[in-house]
Write a structure and sequence with these properties.
- By secondary structure, the protein is of the alpha/beta class.
- Helices cover about 50% and strands about 15% of the residues.
- An eight-stranded mixed beta sheet has the order 3-2-4-1-5-6-7-8, sandwiched between helices.
- Helix 5 runs antiparallel to helix 12.
- The longest helix has 18 residues.
- The protein is elongated and about 65 Å long.
- It starts with a helix and ends with a helix.
- The N terminus is likely disordered.
């Protein structure tokens, strides 16, 4: 069993390494320029490093924290060569992320005392929300859980159709109504159906509109209220999906959504097609909300539980 686990873990790590390849290549190209002609980490190198981190979408606030930590390290160690900078960066970023929030998601696990475990998924259109739901449903089913999907994004026919495609692909039931139906009604029907089917996990898709925050807030609040008529204290998890390839725009979306509703976890998608993977470091640090999942490829297995130590290791792997 442990051998299988090791093989699986190593395959996952390979996928993560490959998924972060563009981000890593871009970062190291900038780093090489930043330390060109320098043998020692001095103020110039630190200024250049600050620029590299900001331009790699780590975000200004997180970058300043990282620079502060490296400055403290350099002054303590007196002499730090530029050849050591990569190792120090890896250690300090891993240390920073470890302080951010305690604990990490365990492999697609759900609490034993909540049945059905209800996840409400939010995020703007185009971030990979439906794909994330489909891949998440697949992983939960693979763990032996009975899953039901709810198509409560009723403002776009395409959203309902896309979710149906995933339900068919993963072979799990979906509850839906016609386009324009009341999203809260779909959520109510989904939970009622899940209880009848003795389901373990319910994943509810919601509309991704940010142009009117008040409407969004009201709609999500209504969905929650209606779900709580069926199952107390639901949803158990409000998962915000962000597109990692949009870099700083993902930060902005996270800010807007966390103002509009209570978000309890994050998924950052499309990291394999971008050089903006540093955004995960910034988002993980800036929002006191755990990054639970990352998308590092198009395959059905390529939604991974986020492990900050493995992520940092892959990002800075020479």
């Amino acid at each position: 069993m442990s051998l299988f686990k090791n093989i699986f873990s190593s395959k996952k790590k390979e996928t993560l390494d490959k998924g972060l390849e563009k981000s890593k290549t871009s970062f190291f190209a900038k780093m090489t320029k930043a330390v060109a002609g320098k043998s020692k980490v001095d103020d110039d190198v630190l200024d250049n490093l600050e620029e590299v981190l900001v331009s790699s979408d780590v975000g200004v606030e997180t970058t300043l924290k990282i620079i502060d930590r490296i400055e403290a390290r350099v002054s303590k160690d007196k002499y730090v060569g530029t050849d050591e900078l990569n190792v120090i960066l890896r250690e300090e970023i891993a240390g920073l992320l470890s302080e951010t929030h305690v604990g990490e998601a365990v492999e697609f696990s759900i609490p034993n005392d909540k049945k059905p475990y209800v996840i409400m998924v939010v995020g703007v259109n185009g971030v990979g929300k439906t794909t994330t739901i489909g891949k998440l449903a697949y992983q939960f089913k693979k763990q032996g859980h009975k899953v039901v999907l709810g198509a409560a994004d009723t403002f776009r026919a395409a959203a309902i159709d896309q979710l149906q495609v995933w339900a068919d692909r993963v072979d799990i039931p979906i509850v839906k109504q016609s386009m324009g139906s009341d999203p809260a009604s779909v959520a109510f029907d989904t939970l009622s159906s899940a209880i009848t089917q003795d389901a373990d996990v319910v994943i509810i898709d919601t509309a991704g509109r940010l142009h009117n925050k008040v409407n969004l807030m009201n709609e999500l609040s209504k969905i929650k209220r209606v779900m709580q008529k069926v199952v107390d204290h639901t949803p158990h998890d409000v998962l915000l999906v962000l597109d990692g390839s949009t870099g700083q725009n993902a930060f902005e979306q996270a800010k807007q959504f966390t103002k509009a509703t209570e978000v309890t976890s994050l998924a950052v998608t499309k990291l394999d097609g971008t050089a903006k993977g540093g955004v995960v470091i910034g988002i993980s640090d800036q929002f006191q909300i755990p990054v639970k999942y990352i998308g590092v490829g198009e395959g059905i297995e390529d939604l991974q539980v986020f492990n900050k130590h493995e992520f940092v290791d892959s990002f800075f792997k020479v």
